Amino acid sequence: MITLKSEREIQAMEESGAILAGIHEELRGFIKPGLTTMEINNFVQERIEAAGAICEQIGFEGYEFATCTSVNDEICHGFPGKYVLKDGDLIKVDSVVNYKGAMSDSCWSYLVGEGSPEVKRLMAVTEKALYLGIEQAKVGNRVGDIGHAIQTYVEGEGFSVVREFIGHGIGPTMHESPAIPHYGEAGKGLRLKEGMTITIEPMVNTGTWKSKMDDNGWIARTKDGGLSCQYEHTIAITKDGPKVLTQQK
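Structure tokens predicted for Methionine aminopeptidase:
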């Protein structure tokens, strides 16, 4: 079901988003070689709980952690654990905050230490693709306009867009309709309305867009072992244009 949010509800989601955005800002200086992915998860969980919020991912369909920490060829849903970050790793940290019932969802990519020009270019293209998609998230446009903007830019830069995992509606629960693919045809799909709140979260690969699943049924990896990058914001569709609810400083 698609729920249209009031200005008050969007403001509440923005307060939730500010908590999550602030944590991502802190992670810029926290993530470094030698840390385990579980240490990153614990850092995020402590910050969420200290803000009086709930780590919404914990318990979702049996998921045990406050974050997904996906490294290098892991596209999404990576389990935090004993893996020790090394120089040049690309890590994606994804978390969902529930603050007084208001949801926010944001994933951000971080380069550990010094990375190759290829990794840096992948990150720059993926982040730009996110904002190109956001530009299309306005009243009267269609879902396909978002995906088309992302796909045409990414493929024009020689990368690929993951198809199996997409954005979604959010609030009052974590995952809701509508589905927001990061590929598609302009002018096609559901029309966007004022009050919709969605995530836009392109996952961009250096090689094929196809993925394979680990035996645990959660972690998705690139089928060819190439790198994958992701950036995600929670967005409100407003009469004045798209409003980013997880905006970092």
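The mean pLDDT is 97.
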